[in-house]
Write a structure and sequence with these properties.
This protein is about 45% helix and about 10% strand. The protein is mainly alpha-helical and about 130 residues long. The chain is elongated, with a radius of gyration of 17 Å.
Length: about 130
Amino acid sequence: MTRTHIGTRTLYEVRDHYRQYLFEEYLPFWNRYGVDHEHGGFFCTLGNDGTRLEDGKYMWFQGRGLWVYSYLARHFGNEEALGIARKTAEFLLAHGRDEDGWWVESLEADGRVAAGPTTRVGSCAAC
């Protein structure tokens, strides 16, 4: 049996709903408030109105953002997303490791280390 609906919506309606939300609401919000266009990377803690609640950049969040924007660039030909992904990668390569080469847990907006490497896996102090 081939599924054609989710609830009362067709699969096409569900796809169109999420595509509209992603490209017309969610990504414009993040591009405006969450992307650090000056240094690279992503601000992690925003209010619903886009107010930045803190400047910290947790590495798990940077990795997630880098993956998402790289995916958008590759699969949708989004040049703006490609630029954001590149600037994030450059920021992380320039600032994300300590003097021994270990990835740090978090950075300040300008790339200074806020919290060094951790032995924890799959968690962060802010979560």
